[in-house]
Q: What sequence folds into this?
């Protein structure tokens, strides 16, 4: 996805950071098995968050193993052994990547469309295994992406409405295959985080979208000069209030059920997202920073 959903690593305890890294590395390895080695280079913090959330709700215990990997070929290090939550996160990543390419094929022109065609040669085949593993996942994603695209094609000037639709998409993914209270809590967290991601991404892309003449809901809503310090302060308060929806769901979850997953999720929601919010709105967020450098 986008790489915004990050932990505040400086405020993780040593054991919590070690587990976060183990999940990240375990997911990377699992992605290689589910959708091919090249897909491992598309791993983002967002899917690590998804894996953590699914690990919390899973009855499986996280087993650690020592393995070598591409970034560290000569030294074995700990990672979570491939399991159902990691396979689901890897499959969701593969399907969403393929759907993103299909969206680019529909929207882009010229050189960008040609690049999308090249990417599609890879993502189509690599996501096929994910489709077989989780029937119905792609269809649900595609339906919700269609709802979002329909509003974007109308060039809606209401960013919040668009963000809600993206939240519905992520809520569907986070709760897919779960039931009862688990599904409700996972959906609430997914919808809240999805809403937040959409707003952060729209704000980050606004200058590039303006230069290229592309649609951006925040530009439609406020115009290119509508981001005064007062406006940014109001946006920050609104976005941080939106995160409270995930906080409420987290408050209903039992830490003892999966202490390590819960601790990192708590850090992400209470510290990581607010920190990234301030960085994005303040213009200091580096989305292109290599994630392996930050977590290795």
A:
């Amino acid at each position: 996805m986008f790489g915004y959903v990050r932990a505040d690593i400086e405020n993780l305890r040593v054991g919590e950071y070690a587990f976060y890294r183990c999940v990240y590395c375990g997911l990377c390895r699992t992605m290689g098995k589910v959708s091919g080695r090249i897909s491992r280079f598309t791993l983002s913090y967002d899917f690590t968050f998804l894996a953590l959330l699914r690990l919390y709700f899973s009855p499986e215990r996280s087993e650690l193993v020592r393995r070598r990997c591409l970034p560290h070929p000569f030294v074995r290090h700990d990672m979570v052994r491939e399991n159902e939550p990691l396979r689901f996160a890897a499959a969701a990543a593969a399907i969403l990547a393929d759907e993103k390419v299909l969206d680019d094929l529909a929207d882009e022109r010229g050189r960008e469309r040609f690049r999308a065609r090249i990417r599609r040669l890879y993502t189509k085949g690599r996501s096929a295994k994910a489709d077989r593993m989780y029937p119905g996942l792609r269809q649900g994603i595609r339906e919700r992406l269609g709802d979002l695209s329909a509003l974007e094609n109308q060039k809606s000037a209401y960013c919040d409405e668009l963000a809600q639709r993206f939240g519905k998409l992520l809520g569907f993914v986070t709760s897919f295959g779960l039931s009862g209270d688990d599904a409700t809590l996972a959906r609430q967290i997914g919808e809240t985080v999805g809403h937040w991601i959409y707003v952060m991404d729209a704000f980050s892309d606004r200058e590039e979208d303006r230069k290229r003449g592309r649609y951006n809901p925040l530009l439609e809503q406020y115009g290119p000069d509508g981001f005064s310090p007062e406006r940014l302060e109001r946006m920050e308060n609104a976005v941080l209030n939106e995160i409270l929806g995930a906080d409420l769901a987290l408050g209903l979850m039992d830490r003892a059920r999966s202490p390590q997953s819960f601790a990192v999720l708590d850090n992400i929601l209470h510290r990581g997202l607010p920190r990234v919010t301030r960085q994005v709105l303040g213009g200091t967020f580096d989305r292109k920073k290599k994630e392996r450098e930050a977590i290795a």
Summary: The chain has one domain: 9-295. The mean pLDDT is 89. The longest strand covers residues 64-67.
